[in-house]
Design a protein that fits this description.
Shape: globular
Number of strands: 5
Radius of gyration: 17 Å
Oligomer: single chain
Helix content: 40-55%
Order of helices and strands: EHEHEHEHEHHHHHHH
Largest sheet: 5 strands, parallel
Structural class: alpha/beta
Low-confidence stretches: none
Mean pLDDT: 86
Number of helices: 11
Length: about 220
């Protein structure tokens, strides 16, 4: 069962998402919150698999809520997906940097929304390569961030290669084929890179790959 926490300041939006999610046999909405502060408290109480977080909210907005969830070691198993009315914008990029696994636009089709919930709940990033390129082109400061370049030295050559392929949008099986290794070994390289870089998920690996200069928009 996928356990979901809804964090949105609009009751009508929350009720719509709840109705859609709870019509599914494998999804349960465990709680709702109207702002990020209450959402964080409920996340600690219920430990959901997935938090759907509106970006723009009163008291504590979605970016700060995402940052606080990502920084709390007791919430390491909570995957955050941010919800936006506007699509690709600076708020989305900052949410990804804060630790979100991806984002969804609120006018998404119901079947696509449900698929995205299942993808995010199992730990995969909701980040298509085309979306990544647009975000990076628009919002990543050049030249590469010094702190990201320093962190890059912690990775082995194979881990760097794996992170590069993650940033290019490849899945574990594709990465394994490209590196001529088993999917399990590919996953191991990715997990070790995530651990060394303190990345919660693949989305943060993607952001890191661009900010460190390991990958540029031309490469993806």
């Amino acid at each position: 069962m996928i356990r979901v926490l809804l964090i949105d300041d609009q009751p009508l939006i929350r009720s719509g998402f709840r109705a859609l999610l709870e019509a599914e046999d494998d999804i349960e909405v465990v709680a709702e919150a109207g702002d990020g502060s209450d959402g964080l408290a409920l996340a600690r109480q219920h430990l959901p698999d997935l938090a759907l977080v509106d970006i723009q909210m009163p008291v504590v907005d979605g970016i700060e809520a995402t940052r606080r969830i990502a920084a709390d070691p007791t919430l390491a198993g909570v995957h955050v997906v941010v919800l936006t009315n506007y699509g690709l914008d600076e708020y989305v990029f900052h949410a990804l940097r804060a630790g979100a696994a991806g984002f969804l636009v609120k006018d998404i089709q119901p079947e696509d929304f449900l698929h995205a919930v299942r993808v995010a709940a199992r730990g995969d990033a909701l980040l298509a390569p085309s979306i990544t390129r647009k975000l990076i082109d628009r919002y990543v400061t050049q030249p590469p961030h010094d702190h990201a370049g320093t962190a890059l030295t912690q990775l082995t050559n194979r881990e760097r290669e794996a992170v590069t392929l993650v940033a290019q949008g490849l899945g574990n099986d594709q990465i394994a084929a490209r590196m001529v290794i088993s999917p399990l070994t590919a996953k191991t390289h990715i997990n070790r890179a995530m651990s060394k870089l303190h990345a919660r998920d693949r989305a943060q690996l993607v952001v890191f790959a661009y900010e460190s200069g390991l990958v540029t928009p031309r490469d993806a």
